[in-house]
Structure formats: structure tokens, C-alpha cells
Design a protein that fits this description.
Elements (H helix, E strand, L loop, with lengths): L1 E2 L5 E5 L5 E5 L4 H11 L5 H4 L6 E3 L2 E6 L2 E6 L5 H7 L2 E4 L13 E2 L1 H7 L2 E6 L2 E6 H5 L44
Parallel strand pairs: 6-7, 7-8
Antiparallel strand pairs: 1-2, 1-9, 2-3, 4-5, 5-6, 9-10
């Protein structure tokens, strides 16, 4: 499952292996890139028909590998979604009283960490964000929890890593980790 910037684009992989997307206004370029990277030649307009989703005026739901994904467009949807969603996507900040049984991504998380990818393996859900992959770069906003003078993200610090090398952040200073 993929969640784009601002949650204007949410896509799930159907049992057929194809993506189905909720594509909001202005998200066709991003969806076209996702399809390109997925090796899917279908036009974004076909994928954006959201055949995997069931929607009403307040949001949409989809079942992915037996888990319920809920995309809330308004606070009205939260009563049910906060209690039942295995994965919850909010286009606004998550209220304090909302504690879904699984991961939740809201407008604040998307603003801080960029697009999110969720991987479902049995009853486990793992997420990866653009910020997780990008690391700490001079041209990008600082990541939360990384000191401004620390050249490597926390997950890359440790034995075998030499900060300050040309390939900083990779074992032994090489770019590809070898």
C-alpha cells in the first residue's frame, strides 16, 4: 500500500497484483511515476477508478491481504475507522482520542516524512517512508531526532561506518556498502 504526499494519492495492490488508487486532484503525475516504477503500462485514469475501494462521503475503505485500510476524509469517519482500521490514513492531523489497532498516518506524518509505503506480511505491517530511505541530506529538511551536525542518520551510525568519508553512511565509506 502506498500513501502519497498529503494523502491525495493512496494506492493498494489488489490480489491480481495490479495497483488500484484513490487519486485526488493534482495527483496524476505522482500516480504515473508509481505506475512507471511498478512496470505497469496502464494509464493513470484507469488505475484511479479505485476498483479496490468502497467509498462514501466521509472516506474510503479497502481490504488488503485481509486487513482493513481506512482513508478518512473527515472527522465524521473517525468513530468507526479509529476502532476498526488495521491501517488508517488521515488527510488531517490525528486527534488524540484516535487509537487504531494498527499504524496510522496523518497529515503531520506525511509532511514530516513524505510518502509512506506499507508492507503486509501475515498479521504484521511494516512501513517505510521517503525520509527513512532518503536519510539526512543537506538539501532536505532535517529529520526529527538527528542532530544538525551529525552527518549520518541514526540507523547508519555504529561500528564500520566512517562519517565524513565521500560515501558517508555506508560501511567503510563506500557508496554501495561493499
Amino acid at each position: 500500500m502506498l500513501v502519497g504526499r498529503g494523502a491525495a494519492l493512496v494506492a493498494v495492490r489488489m490480489a491480481t497484483g495490479e495497483l488500484s488508487a484513490l487519486a485526488g486532484r493534482g495527483s496524476s503525475f505522482e500516480l504515473a511515476r508509481w505506475l512507471e516504477h511498478d512496470g505497469d503500462a496502464r494509464p493513470p485514469t484507469e488505475v484511479a477508478k479505485a476498483v479496490a475501494f468502497r467509498c462514501d462521503a466521509h472516506g474510503c475503505t479497502a481490504r488488503v491481504k485481509g486487513m482493513l485500510l481506512a482513508v478518512a476524509n473527515s472527522a465524521v469517519a473517525l468513530r468507526d475507522d479509529c476502532a476498526a482500521a488495521s491501517i488508517l490514513v488521515l488527510k488531517f492531523p490525528k486527534p488524540r482520542g484516535c487509537s487504531p489497532p494498527g499504524p496510522a498516518v496523518d497529515a503531520e506524518a506525511l509532511s514530516a516524512k513524505g510518502a509512506h509505503a506499507f508492507y503486509i506480511d501475515g498479521d504484521r505491517v511494516r512501513s517505510v517512508t521517503v525520509a527513512d530511505t532518503r536519510g539526512d541530506r543537506p538539501w532536505a529538511p532535517p529529520l526529527p531526532g538527528v542532530a544538525a551536525d551529525d552527518p549520518s542518520p541514526p540507523e547508519l551510525a555504529g561500528p564500520g561506518y566512517r562519517a565524513g568519508d565521500l560515501g558517508a553512511g555506508q560501511p567503510n565509506g563506500t557508496r554501495d556498502g561493499r
